[in-house]
Amino acid sequence: MQKTIITLDENDMPKKWYNILPDMPTPVSPPLHPATKEPIGPKDLSPLFPMELIKQEVSQERFITIPDEVRDIYALWRPSPLYRAHRLEKELKTPAKIYYKYEGVSPAGSHKPNTAIPQAYYNMKEGIERLATETGAGQWGSALALATTLFKLKCTVYMVKISYQQKPYRKSLMHLWGADVIPSPSNKTDSGKKILSKDPDSPGSLGIAISEAIEDAAHHDDTHYSLGSVLNHVMLHQTVIGQEAKEQLAQVEDYPDVIIGSVGGGSNFSGISFPFLMDKISGKKDMEVIGVEPTACPSLTGGEFRYDFGDTVGLTPLLKMYTMGHDYIPPAIHAGGLRYHGDSPIVSQLYEDKLISAVAYNQTEVFKAGVTFARSEGIVPAPESSHAIKCAIDKALECKKSGEQKTILFNLSGHGHFDMSAYDSYFSGGMKDIA
Ligand SMILES: *Cc1c(COP(=O)(O)O)cnc(C)c1O
Question: Rounded to whole angstroms, how far apart are CA atoms 262 and 252?
Fold first, then answer.
């Protein structure tokens, strides 16, 4: 029988995260203080983050040891399976080999716990009692709620108001794992009040919710802030995905010609691709690496590479990144996890240096690809992940035309079990394309 799922033993889970910073041809530009515009130091970040994460943010060590306490929890779902998409290949009649790494097996249903767990761990070690964060559609909020409950910390999640109203089950999941969930903008913070005074009916945005969570953390000594994407330490933690995929492909004596991931802030894309990019940068191997974004929020393909705030109000350090502008409020699309105005500074610099490329798709073509995938492979993909699927399908169809037998690897970042109303909207013909 042909191999469909390629597994690793628990003991073969990575023992270190891969840090791409020392390998980057052009170093990332330093974050700047929002007021002085000078590069910030560890002290500026210490009200918000534990020292271990601040160190990881700037570390030049190529490999960083994963604490045993973190690996013990990773073991609840890692190593995650790598699938060979035999049935999708047949459906497409492509000579290409398609593999996908499935991160939907985590308790929260996405890759996000890969960083939520170490973030909660380092905060717990430093004596912090509560974490404040933001969430859009609820994937990050539920990942951090899971992580904080496992380390017995409290958790406050500022959830974008429109999602709070439209995605009741993600909110229930956060409650189940013990988090407080507050619709944002709220009147609990000055940032929230400022937005509400201008627009009492504001549907909220990720940028506004970040402002609220940061303000909450800055005003409470026992509380830190936690971010689910964009920052260097988040990209670092996600590299367990690509390291495992590399081992799994080696088992079947394969190596990808094309690597694909959806890009919101860039973390699952970094996770699947950085351990392979290491080989590309060193000249050992070559491959095409593609980030996929929605046309509704095309930071890489339609944004500018410059310093910008990470939030709407302007409380965060300035980050050099591809951005739509910090006051850009993306149109409502069903892939809520991809509605962020900026991108990881590392991913942005790699894009600027042409080590990676990017493509943007409309949501109806993305859902069509997601349905094709679900009807051949069975797994119901998250709308965010379907962006990667759409690109993988396009690449496989190119191979069909050219006759090439390329190896395509994509990251299936999460399942779509909480997104059934989005699928309903697609099937009812009510889904709209933007731009
Ligand atoms: C949050 C999320 C994304 C986008 O975030 P990145 O940091 O770019 O990975 C993609 N897929 C899923 C399932 C998500 O939950």
Answer: 25
